[in-house]
Hints:
The protein is of the alpha/beta class. It has 15 helices and 13 strands. Helix 2 crosses helix 3 and helix 2 (47-73) runs antiparallel to helix 5. It starts with a helix and ends in a 6-residue tail after the last helix.
Amino acid sequence: MSEKRIKYKFIVMPLDYLWNVTKEIARHEGKVAAKNHMTSSMTEKYGTYYRIISILADLALVNLAGYIAYLLTKWPLESIDFHHINSIHILLINFIWIYAAQIAQLYQDIFAKDAIPTVKQSIFAFSLFAISISLLIYLVPEFKLSNHLALYTLCLFAPMLFAGKIAFLLLRRTHRANLIEYTRIVIVGAGPIGTELARIMESKSSMGYQVVGFFDDKPDLRVAEVNILGSVADCIEYVKMNNIKEVFCALPDRALNKINTLMREADREMIRFKLVPDVKDYFKKNVNVKMLGHFPVISPRAEPLESISNKVFKRLFDIVFSLFAIVFVMSWLLPILAIWIKLESKGPVFFRQQRSGKDNAPFWCLKFRSMTVNADSDSMQATKNDKRITRLGAFMRKTSIDELPQFFNVLMGDMSVVGPRPHMLQHTNDYSELIDQFMVRHFVLPGITGWAQVSGHRGETNEDGAMEKRVEADIWYLENWSMWLDLKITFLTVWQVLLGHKNAY
Length: 505
């Protein structure tokens, strides 16, 4: 077989073969999107075609990276031999990328998605791809791909992929409005709920809604700066005449008869009807809604760590990171610090203190002893220029080295690497009486470091509002947890340890 023919088989054949596969994937996603239109407000013009182009572009980059990597491993070029290339392996690599990207949802809502989710999904997809290729090499003897070739391919593909995504995001920024087909809607009820809903839709164009106007029976609202299109009774006729497919009802509960009538008329005319309940007096932010039978159950917050898969990922990260810290840092640092602590002051090397853990269950928290032995350690918080702190203790507290033994707490399952910092039992009792939602932070495992700490909320809490800000940051972490966030907090913690922190004493 000629060299030209083999090159064609290496690069072009996989793309040609996968054209039909990608079209089938896009067609299937289109059907799913149509089926789930009730949960999606926005459609993308020519979305299927752009999705196919995105898939093929990424596959082209995978194959280009593999081709360049092959040339690098066979340098100088005179020694290149294409005869032993296995096209099945090439196709398998392409399929692995497609399914890694599908798991990461990289090709879904490519115009509606913001930049940060796109980058995160790209990183997730590449990580799955790299792990899958590595596992194939080491676990499947028939998959004969040299380590150098795989490494070069991944190292080349990563910058190509992210450069392509960044270029796409930059190009999309100027054409995004033309690529998204907005859903025109009307809102029934021009009171505080309806006007707030309209404001949110208008301020977040990526949601894909265009508010045409309001329907309300209160005549005094017509003189305000609200686009009142008519009374509630006029709503259905208006949307029929103007080809509007969705109605959002923000009427108060006392207008139950109007709501039921409007709902029946909308169903009769095949107009989607969405009810916006007034729960602002109960919940001041995003809520989590689940269905129990036909009853909607509203939770005041989302808790990502209630998911089993998220718990598993976080626990694996805790175990791996803790073992790394214990083996490569504490194994040599512990004897040095133990001798130094003993020489400087009498007392044990480790300081054990009961603190509040998950679900407010007490546990013994470990630290290197940084103070002289005293009777106030379980009730009095450390302060600036605290005379109880030893010279070595001041250094350890400034660099957070005193917290290192808590990696043993992490291995035992009492703590996590990242989470709200645990407080002394007495402080938990005191703050729970003074601060609203203080106990919410105990829904997750306490951490060696946390979002509050890297955000600057550490040290003493004697200033007005200091503890409230810390609690607010801890609850934000609980509601917005992701593996990416944990990695970010860990990196920022290491960075702050190297630079020092003004509130660490």
